[in-house]
Design brief:
Helix content: 25-40%
Strand order of the largest sheet: 1-8-7-6-5-4-3-2
Bound molecules: D-xylitol-5-phosphate, zinc ion
Strand content: 15-25%
Distance between the termini: 10 Å
Number of strands: 8
Number of helices: 8
Radius of gyration: 16 Å
Order of helices and strands: EHEHEHEHEEHEHEHH
Structural class: alpha/beta
Length: 211
């Protein structure tokens, strides 16, 4: 039996009916919902933020997995937690102090995750692993959905897995049936997927194909 958990990224959802899109993923068997926050500073795109999370929190009982692609995650950790974030991931390359940010996320009652851009060596995560609830490997450059999976991501997952046998590892970007298999084999636990899941006619079959 597979323990792989699936986190649909609502960046690829139809925003004109977000509540229905969440219900569709929940009924299809999603384990959590991935919520990509972009500030137009840390990444060259702007998505959605705290009021949207607070509003859709009521639409599903699934945990919310928040991916902060923002310059100053420390400043906003508490507000995202209060709006309903169960898990908060931020970037090591942001301006916030990583240890202080992890502590702030925990103090706000959420699980803390750390991630890195594809160009940052995976070893940069290692000093923080004991304080984290999970780590996220980006398999595309953060900022946009619908990009192609970067071929070196499985090796980065393997390197992280060898350092930390039990830490949940998330992977985000370009996940489909084929790339999901590479990530599972490398040791990933949680697969984030946007376009592949929301673009599928049969979301339940698409989710199953990633496990
Ligand atoms: C990219 C985001 C991803 C994105 C994944 O910056 O972090 O979560 O939504 O989308 P797909 O699965 O379409 O690559
Ligand atoms: Zn993401």
């Amino acid at each position: 039996m597979s323990k792989t958990r699936i986190s649909p990224s609502i960046l690829a959802a139809d925003f004109s009916c977000l509540g229905r899109e969440l219900a569709r993923m929940e009924h299809a068997g999603a384990d959590m919902i991935h919520f990509d926050v972009m500030d137009g500073v840390f990444v060259p795109n702007i998505s959605f933020g705290i009021p949207v999370l607070a509003s859709i929190r009521k639409a599903t009982s699934l945990p919310f997995d928040i991916h902060l692609m923002i310059a100053d995650p420390l400043r906003y950790a508490d507000a995202f937690a209060k709006a309903g974030a169960d898990m908060i991931t931020f970037h090591l390359e942001s301006d916030s102090d990583p240890r202080e940010t992890i502590r702030a996320i925990h103090a706000a009652g959420s699980k803390a995750g750390l991630t890195i851009r594809p160009s940052t060596p995976v070893e940069a995560l290692f000093p923080f692993l004991p304080e984290l609830d999970f780590a996220l490997i980006m398999s595309v450059e953060p900022g946009f959905g619908g990009q192609s999976f970067l071929a070196d991501a499985p090796d980065r997952i393997r390197a992280l897995r060898s350092m930390s046998p039990d830490l949940p590892i998330n992977v985000d970007g370009g996940i489909n049936r084929e790339t999901a298999a590479l990530c599972r084999e490398a040791g990933a636990d949680i697969l984030v997927s946007g376009n592949y899941l929301f673009g599928a006619k049969d979301a339940a079959a698409a989710i199953d194909s990633l496990r």
